[in-house]
UniProtKB/TrEMBL annotation:
Residues 34-167 form the TIR domain. SUPFAM superfamilies: Toll/Interleukin receptor TIR domain. This is TIR domain-containing protein. The keyword Cell wall biogenesis/degradation does not apply. Keywords: Membrane, Signal, Transmembrane, Transmembrane helix. PROSITE patterns: TIR. InterPro entries: TIR_dom, Toll_tir_struct_dom_sf. Its main location: membrane. It is found in: Membrane. It comes from the Eukaryota. The keyword Disulfide bond does not apply. Pfam families: TIR_2 (PF13676).
Amino acid sequence: MSIGTLTGLVLVVGLLAYMLRSKRRKKAPVPSDYKYHVFIIYNNEDRLWMKKLLTFLEDKHNLKCCVHYRNWIVGRPFRDSMAESVNNSYKIIALFSSNSIKSNYFSYELDLAIDRQEKSGDHSLAVIRIDGVNFKELPSELRNKTLIDCKDPSQRLIWKTKLLEFLDLPLDSDNNNAEDYQVNINNGVTRTRFSRLDSTTSNDLQTPLI
């Protein structure tokens, strides 16, 4: 085989590999009428948790997410950006912690998300408790809503599954948190039901479980 032919094959293989990686990185289409799949509400002290969650949603599930430090326009009033992010996102995830309850910004964003959900009834808000903060610190409107608890050992086994269900996504077949799952189609939306969960979990609550 000539050097020219070999070089050509290498280039073709490299191009195919690049196209395959690009296809895998392509974002899933955002539901109509929205700019983002998910807006993440969090306190900056919980940025490690947020970044792990962001990687899980964007790199593994190809979702388009909104977070303030990269998606907000510099110089624009915070309250305007907060309201736009809440209203332009299909789902909102709030990272609830002992840090977040001290933040006026977090409280304001959460109030906006609650107001949207109550007015539209669109089941758009989920709260993930990431430390030992008391659930009583949540606004009363949320205590019977979608709460995902990573502090409770029994709930920590299935938190990722609950999150995927909230986001209307099928459970990953390679997700170590669940096995023997079935995917059902309900009114055109993919839903997931699982029958057996892995019994192992980590006791390190300081490490994001993603």
